[in-house]
Amino acid sequence: MIDRIDLIRYPAIVSWQNSTSLKTNFLLVLFITVAMWSQHAFAAPSVDVKVTGINKKLHENIMLMLDIERQKKDDSLNETRIHLLHQKSPQRIKTALQPFGYYKPVIKSKLEQLSADKWLASYTVDAGPPISIKEFDFKLIGAAQKDPSFDALTKNLPLTKNQTLNHPLYERIKEDLASKASERGYFDAQLVAHKITIDLDTYSAIVILHFDSGVRYQFGPVIFSKEILKPSLMQRYVPFKEGDPYTVDALLDLQQALVDSNFFNNVEVKTIQEQAQNGIMPVSVTVEPRKRHKYIFGAGYGTDTGARGKIGWEMPRINKHGHKFSSELKISEISDSVVGKYHIPIKNPRTDEVVVQAGYNKETTDVSESYQRFAGVSLSQARGLWREIWSVKFENEHFIIANKINSANLLIPGANWTRVWAKDRINSDKGTRLDLSFRGATEQLISDISFFQGSTMIKNILPLGSRARMITRGLLAGTVESDFTTLPSSLRYFSGGSQSVRGYSYQSLGPRNDEDKVLGGRHLITASLELEHNIIKKWSAAIFFDIGNAVNALTDPLERGAGFGVRWRSPIGPIRLDLASAISSPGKPWRLHINIGPDL
Asked: Which of 125, 228, 314, 439 has its CA 20 to 30 A from that of 134?
């Protein structure tokens, strides 16, 4: 097949008529040129579509249904097709109005030719009265009748008797019922009757909707694809028992528990519906083990610590008992530390573990030096909604405060309770965190000195409208000791810095000696009020006021700081840049503070 005529390639066409060859050739070229030019010169006409008289929701649906709107810039559009599409438009408008209960609209249409290639199609729509539901026959059948989760759904149906018929809401009821049934384990659920009858004579509708949930399935055995850990340990990650009613939330909880364990690379949890019998549904869990070793590298900066770096090495799974090993080396401008931990899961492995640890920490600040070696064991577990940690640690610390060198050996038992009320601890719009801690030592048991310390910290985030929040925090800690002069620097309290009283350098506040050197205090009191307002996207501005000090008596004076800052919400928590004034100090000097970390 010849796709085109090539005059150079076919000389017979040129020489067939001797006397008229030049004329014929010229006319042929002219014809082809005109044909090609006409394709561009006579472009397809376009149509503007205008619909008035109805609200935004109805307007949007009409524009979606109108063929003339969808094809108004089609290259194949011509005058004949424009008239045809315009004639069909009133019926299309009626169809678009019916889902919202309007079955008697009055439509005025007009088609105008504005220019050779421009048309205007106008439609003025009076939707008319909406049709109401004369009878709404809804029935819930099956085991779901006794399921409280269906109560809120069935008692707050978006359609009822005497309301305007709305097809999207009718479809939403069906979708909500099917979705709730799937979430709650009614896998045989079905609509046994669903019908809408329109009576135009009485201008009313009858809605029939009968939903049979069938029986509710129960969880069967949980089958793991691989025995990466002891079967008894893997089963302890399962948050439900055989025979418990099925919920999709329980399956998601199981998957999240296995992912959070760090034992597995990939986790897939699903029901085995083809093996279900008598309402019992087995669960299949497919897991792939993580690599035997994991390495962690990190770097950062804070005005309290200066530049800092971190290197970590972990063995996520040492044996089938779920034992783990983790180690970490941290280096900063003021401190160096190395610690190794051996983790042993117990009871509920998601929350409960015994940790044996040992390490070394060196810290050098403007007010003290500390060289600390330690080893200990801790028991961490969930106590309801609280996180509870019991520990005992042996410490050997050499320290220098106010040019005085000292050392101490201490056996320190301790306890800590933490609770967080928040959906998102990283970037929280509303939430509270509460920490309670106690620790101590006695000369009757290995330790060189006796002391007891207790502390409580609370932080609260309260939304103020949709774009602002108020952040308050408070800390109160105290010490009872046999000889404060021999208390190591790591057990004394200091104040000042980005997490304490801003406007003052890190650990620069506290009782001083005759040479004006900071000694640290027996007690610590700090409080803060901060107002933050979102400016644009993830950026916010803040103003704040801090008060507090490390003191030897609760009546000692407190220092104050105030300032302003900017915040950027990062995936690891807000990055805070603050400029604060030490308003209690002569001259009220200013200091820059940078801090990164989660809200709670």
From this structure: 125
pLDDT in tens, 110-138: 999 999 889 999 999 999 999 999 999 99
And the tokens for 266? Answer: 């990939």
Q: Which residues contact 399 (CB under 8 A, 6 or more apart)?
A: 368, 369, 370, 371, 405, 406, 407, 408, 488, 489, 490
* Crossing angle of helices 167-184 and 148-155, rounded to 10°: 180
CA–centroid distance for 370 within its chain = 40
Question: Each residue of 460-508: pLDDT tens digit?
Answer: 999 999 999 999 999 999 999 988 989 999 999 999 999 999 999 999 9
Q: E strand or H helix at 12, and its extent?
A: helix 11-15
Q: Is the pLDDT of residue 276 over 60?
A: yes
d(CA 198, CA 208): 12
Encoding tokens for residue 137? 């026959």
Among 42-46, 438-442, 506-510, name the most confident range.
438-442
Q: What are phi and psi of 59, to 5 degrees?
A: -60, -45
DSSP state of 203: T
- Is residue 209 within 8 A of residue 174, CB to CB? The reply is yes
Q: How far is the C-alpha of 304 from the C-alpha of 505, rounded, in Å?
A: 7
Give CA separation, 249 vs 132, 272, 286, in Å.
38, 17, 18
Long-range contacts of 466-469 (CB under 8 A, 24+ apart): 467/533, 467/534, 468/531, 468/532, 468/533, 468/534, 469/429, 469/430, 469/531, 469/532
Q: Which range (26-40, 71-85, 210-224, 477-491) has the least confidence?
A: 26-40
* Beta carbons of 558 and 549 less than 8 angstroms apart: yes
- Residue 477 makes CB contacts below 8 A (sequence gap 6+) with 453, 454, 455, 456, 493, 523, 524
- Cα separation, 300 vs 500, whole angstroms: 20
- Residue 486, amino acid: T
Q: Which residue has the tokens 């949930």?
A: 213
pLDDT tier at 371, thresholds 50, 70, 90: very high
Q: Quick one: which of 204, 202, 138, 141 has its CA closest to 170? A: 138
Helices then strands, counting H and E runs in the chain, come out as: 9, 25
The pair of structure tokens assigned to 486 is 């021999």
DSSP letter for 417, please: E
Nearest Cα to Cα of residue 490 among 400, 414, 356, 559: 400
Task: With a cut of 70, say whether residue 441 has pLDDT above it.
Answer: yes
Q: Give residue-wise pLDDT tens across range 508-520.
A: 999 998 888 999 9
**Beta carbons of 317 and 325 less than 8 angstroms apart:** no
Cβ atoms of 323 and 344 within 8 Å: the answer is yes
The helix/strand/coil state of 236 is: coil
In single-letter form, the type of residue at position 153 comes to L
What is the Cα gyration radius of the chain? 38
